[in-house]
Design brief:
Length: 491
């Protein structure tokens, strides 16, 4: 489940044989003796770096020293932890990621990591393993040449404490997030709705989760017409995955429903998208992939609450059979929709999925979807937009997101926004005017989520990162998985 081996050692880091040793040093280390006991050990090198401001402990900054005095390791990597008072678990996760990102290009190294403060609680070990596994992730699945980047081979964790439980949890969460990233990375020709359902089925089998895949005829029998309308233009049949996790014993009457948009490729349909950057629409299934990833983590993390994931999957294609702008469809809930734009398809498949989640007995809903370009305009690629019909429920999710270092932002959803979705002929149109597009999209979903407490996460800007970060390679982020796992653990 992990891409690296993790070995605890009680030896001090300077005495450990490794390709590299990693130390976290802080900005406020620049007193008399920056680097504490390592100041003398390195023959004054660390204080010198601070004095010259070459390395001064700034958050995520780094310095690589070859053949360091006082160390058995071949190299010493210093990473900035920032201000000691601000250093928390999300910071430790990122620093751990930077260590792996900085060293992974060098022929499969083994790395010794000095666990800060040598106290190493279980949650510290957990986030270190998470950060390292996420940083070691590779995007070049289909490269058969020029792939020198082999990743890091193994980590020696220098600590006095026992680490097994932390490693297990860190591996479960990062493994789940990397599973999500792996799905999101797949191109549309390979990851069709049928293939996504096959991968969800093997994942469920390996994780001891229950899964059911509803195909065309079953979806017809359930009258999921807003979903089927999107699927009808494609030669690829739709699939709706229902994955169930049930705790052994629970006192909780809550039942969490996780609904994720999984459009395996979004051309826009008859309202065809411009060709520039259309290839990016292979990641239009990231919401569904996040929900499947969270489910995978539950098999190890074992929260005390029942969770059901509902993942509707279609391909949005133009063809002679495709849905037309102006078509009217009757959703599973009975509400009718005038489809003014076939590119606003995510909300159509989610509408029926939200209704179905209610029918399956869920009491609390969260959906994740690469739903609108408009959220990217509003929040960029840093924060996820979080919409809700229940602020108490939303605040619990936002607290979890904070705790695990996933950035979200609450967005408005006043009743008046519904006016944007008026249709002269049906209950709702599937689009509003140009303005506030992410809000009207959320307002549309609300019609199918009410009356249950519900949060909608628009992850269009965050699911795919265009640029390398110091701690994470560019590409699919697996955003959402950690927050959802944390929330379920606290329910
Ligand atoms: N999948 C797109 C949204 C999207 C945009 C995801 C950019 C990732 C990056 C969605 O189906 C879509 O096309 N939305 C339209 C809605 C519009 C037609 C009302 C959009 O945002 O332009
Ligand atoms: Zn679309
Ligand atoms: Zn889409």
């Amino acid at each position: 489940m992990v891409s690296m081996t993790y070995e605890p050692t009680r030896a001090v880091i300077e005495s450990v044989e490794a390709d590299a040793a990693v130390l976290i040093l802080f900005e406020d280390d620049d007193g008399d003796r920056p680097g504490g006991r390592f100041a003398e050990l390195t023959g004054g090198l660390i204080p010198e770096l601070y004095a010259r401001k070459e390395f001064a402990g700034k958050f995520l900054s780094k310095a690589l020293i070859h053949r360091p005095a006082g160390f058995r390791a071949e190299r010493l990597l210093l990473i900035g932890g920032g201000k000691t008072s601000e250093f928390d678990l999300p910071c430790l996760r990122r620093v751990s990621g930077v260590a792996v990102r900085a060293l992974r290009a060098t022929a499969k190294p083994t790395v010794a990591f000095d666990v800060p403060g040598h106290k190493s609680s279980e949650s510290e070990i957990q986030v270190i393993v998470e950060g390292m596994e996420l940083a070691n992730y590779k995007i070049d699945t289909y490269k058969t040449i020029d792939s020198d980047d082999k990743g890091v081979a193994g980590i020696l964790l220098c600590t006095q404490e026992s680490v097994e439980a932390g490693i297990l949890r860190g591996a479960a969460i990062a493994g789940a997030q990397n599973f999500t990233r792996g799905l999101v990375n797949e191109p549309g020709n390979i990851l069709t709705p049928t293939e996504l359902a096959a991968r969800a089925t093997s994942m469920a089998g390996e994780s001891g989760l229950d899964i059911e895949v509803l195909r065309q005829e079953q979806l017809e029998a359930l009258k999921m017409n807003t979903l089927l309308g999107v699927a009808q233009g494609s030669d690829q049949p739709p699939a709706l995955m229902v994955v169930r996790y049930r705790p052994q014993h629970t006192t909780s009457e809550h039942h969490l429903g996780l609904i994720g948009k999984a459009v395996t490729f979004d051309t826009g349909g008859i309202s065809l998208k411009p060709s520039k950057d259309m290839h990016e629409m292979k990641y239009d299934m990231a919401g569904g992939a996040a929900m499947l990833g969270a489910m995978r983590a539950f098999s190890t993390m074992r929260p005390d609450v029942a969770v059901t994931a509902v993942v509707p999957s279609v391909e949005n294609m133009p063809s002679a059979r495709a849905q037309r702008p102006g078509d009217i469809v009757t959703s599973m809930s009975g509400q009718t929709v005038e489809v003014l734009n076939t590119d606003a398809e995510g909300r159509l498949i989610l509408a029926d999925a939200l209704t179905y989640a209610q029918e399956l007995g869920c009491t609390h809903l969260i959906d994740a979807a690469t739903l609108t370009g408009s959220i990217v305009v509003a929040l960029g690629t840093l924060r996820v937009g979080a919409f809700t019909n229940n602020e108490e429920w939303q605040s619990r999710l936002l607290a979890s997101a904070d705790a695990v270092g996933e950035k979200m932002w609450p967005m408005p959803l006043d009743d008046e926004y519904i006016d944007e979705l008026k249709s002269p002929i049906a209950d709702f149109a599937n689009i509003g005017s140009r303005w506030g597009g992410s809000i009207t999209a959320a307002m549309f979903l609300k019609q199918f989520a009410d009356p249950l407490p519900w949060v909608h996460l628009d992850i269009a800007g965050t699911a795919w990162q265009d640029k390398d970060a110091p701690d994470l390679p560019k590409g699919p982020s697996g955003f959402g998985v950690r927050s959802l796992v944390d929330l379920a653990m606290k329910m």
